[in-house]
TrEMBL record:
The lineage of its organism: Eukaryota, Sar, Stramenopiles, Ochrophyta, Bacillariophyta. Residues 39-75 form the TRAF-type domain. This is TRAF-type domain-containing protein. A zinc finger (TRAF-type) spans 39-75. InterPro entries: Znf_RING/FYVE/PHD, Znf_TRAF. The keyword Metal-binding applies. It comes from Trieres chinensis. One of its GO terms (molecular function) is zinc ion binding. It holds the Pfam family zf-TRAF. Keywords: Metal-binding, Zinc, Zinc-finger.
């Protein structure tokens, strides 16, 4: 007797039991072997089928209740599977405009497919925006780390523009402009440009 068997409890009454207390359920085994029969639950069928075949019988039973294929478009008919062709052929008012209904169904499927594509594109766009944000941050850091050169006209123009129009930005990037202020010649160039 193993340790698990000593501590086993009945799932119903929670009383302890051992391996010798378990008795095979022969009735259940007989039912599972296929000798037990089940009655089809669908109205007017009443077929007796082996338990193991109930699921397959339900799939092909002519008395299984079904809805009209135009139900999503407003048809309220429900009936046995064997009567669906007659209903859709004669009784369904939407069957008469089946071409239009079919086009509407296809359009709905197309819209759903496009919705899925839009969701995928939004997700991809979110990833691209995240990468762009990281690249922008890296570019700003790189731009701040580059030292401006006093002999470069473009750097001189940027310095003058930032000093005159964006003093806060100019102060934030003061490390870039040290070369301009480091020499008398650099300061003179800036003052002449201003």
């Amino acid at each position: 007797v193993g340790a698990d068997e000593q501590h086993s409890k009945c799932p119903c009454c929670r009383s302890p039991f051992g391996g010798g207390d378990v008795v095979p359920d022969l009735e259940l085994k007989r039912k599972m072997d296929g000798s037990a029969m089940a009655t089809c639950p669908f109205p007017n069928c009443g077929a007796k089928v082996p338990l193991r075949d109930v699921k397959s019988h339900h799939a092909k039973c002519e008395y299984m209740p079904v809805r009209c294929r135009y139900a999503p478009f407003g048809c309220a008919w429900t009936g046995p599977k064997r009567d669906i062709k007659g209903h859709e052929g004669v009784g369904c008012h939407l069957a008469k405009v089946s071409g239009v209904v079919e086009q509407l169904r296809l359009a709905n499927e197309h819209v759903k497919a496009q919705g899925v594509q839009v969701a995928q594109l939004r997700q991809a766009l979110g990833g691209v925006q995240q990468v762009m944000g990281m690249n922008r941050q890296a570019f700003v850091q790189l731009q701040r780390s580059v030292v401006a050169r006093a002999d470069c006209p473009a750097d001189m123009a940027r310095l003058v523009y930032n000093a005159a129009c964006h003093p806060i930005r100019f102060l934030r990037e003061k490390e870039r402009w040290k070369e301009f202020w480091g020499t008398e010649e650099g300061r003179a160039r800036v003052m002449n440009a201003l």
